[in-house]
């Protein structure tokens, strides 16, 4: 009685290990193909504001020239700090209100920190000043100082920048440092914002023939929307990706009835043969037209530089039965 039991346990253990190896191997292959297999030491990443602006403009220009680009490409606007004062570190950015029908897609604060000896990491908290007695928590982040040279850090400032650029009072921000031996004063500070028209979610290409048009759960093969967030994928080196943070990947799903949207003559023949011989698999809804994804990321071989890349076959544009 015990022999079959332990045999089954051993078999299940083996199958689980095989599945783990397959999944891990697939992820490793993906990381290698995307160039994300080179492990960055996040403590050494030090991208200057000049390098950031230069490469971001190249990246955005490339995106605007893409014929298959699905979403509207934002513009980059930059503001430098004009004032530092008060008991806590206070930064003020002379930000002008955006034109009507414009909104902030994302924004970040970039600080040039002085060399801080004998400290491995510190925690920076950022608050938006609402009035003399009130402030709003924006974000906090663990950062890694350098003991021998200034270093650039970045923080998500989308909430505050959106309010300022929409016309709300701009009294600046306050920085608090947990772990600093002295009050923290950055050498430089800039706000970078990516701005878009409010109708940004309309596709530049309009509605394609294979995009899903209804909420019918029994619909035929069509392209569904799929928003991918790199950080949520937990792909190890995803933190080296500067842009895009998310992107519309799309996926294909739906029925493939007879004589409906075949990808090729082979698919048509396979569908006919399947009706006569069920051992031949039926055609499935799958991507028939794919596009690459433009990416701005930290250079895997130089942590002070950025580079623009094209990752092939990352976006489904059209679907068909194949």
Automatic annotation (TrEMBL):
Q: For this UniProt record, give its keywords in alphabetical order, as a comma-separated list.
A: Disulfide bond, Growth factor, Secreted, Signal
GO CC annotation? extracellular space
Q: Does the keyword Disulfide bond apply?
A: yes
Predominant cellular place of this UniProt entry's protein: secreted
**Which compartments is it annotated to reside in?**
Secreted
Name the protein family: Belongs to the TGF-beta family.
Protein name according to UniProt = TGF-beta propeptide
Q: Which organism is it from?
A: Popillia japonica (Japanese beetle)
């Amino acid at each position: 009685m015990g022999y079959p039991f332990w045999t089954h346990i051993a078999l299940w253990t083996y199958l689980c290990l095989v599945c783990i190896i397959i999944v891990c191997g697939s992820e490793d292959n993906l990381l290698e193909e995307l160039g994300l297999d080179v492990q960055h030491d996040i403590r050494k990443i030090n991208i200057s504001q000049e390098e950031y602006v230069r490469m971001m403009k190249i990246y955005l220009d490339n995106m605007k020239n893409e014929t298959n680009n699905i979403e509207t490409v934002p513009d980059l606007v930059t503001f430098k700090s004009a004032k530092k004062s008060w008991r806590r570190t206070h930064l003020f950015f002379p930000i002008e209100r955006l034109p009507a029908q414009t909104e902030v897609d994302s924004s970040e604060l970039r600080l040039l920190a002085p060399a801080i000896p004998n400290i491995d990491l510190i925690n920076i908290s950022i608050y938006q000043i609402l009035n003399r007695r009130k402030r709003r928590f924006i974000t906090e982040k663990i950062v890694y100082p350098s003991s021998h040279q200034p270093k650039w850090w970045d923080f998500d400032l989308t909430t505050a920048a959106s309010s300022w650029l929409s016309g709300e009072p701009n009294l600046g921000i306050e920085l608090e440092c947990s772990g600093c031996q002295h009050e923290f004063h950055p050498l430089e500070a800039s706000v970078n914002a990516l701005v878009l028209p409010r109708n940004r979610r309309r596709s530049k290409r309009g509605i394609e023939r294979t995009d899903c048009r209804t909420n019918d759960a029994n619909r035929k093969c069509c392209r569904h929307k799929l928003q991918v967030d790199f950080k949520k994928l937990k792909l190890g080196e995803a933190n080296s990706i500067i842009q895009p943070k998310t992107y519309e990947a799309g996926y294909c799903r739906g029925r493939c009835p007879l004589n409906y949207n075949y990808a090729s003559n082979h698919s048509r023949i396979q569908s006919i043969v399947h009706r006569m011989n069920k051992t031949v698999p039926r055609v499935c809804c799958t991507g028939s037209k794919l596009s690459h994804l433009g990416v701005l990321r930290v250079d895997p071989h130089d942590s002070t530089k950025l580079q623009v890349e094209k990752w092939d076959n990352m976006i489904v544009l059209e679907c068909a039965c194949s």
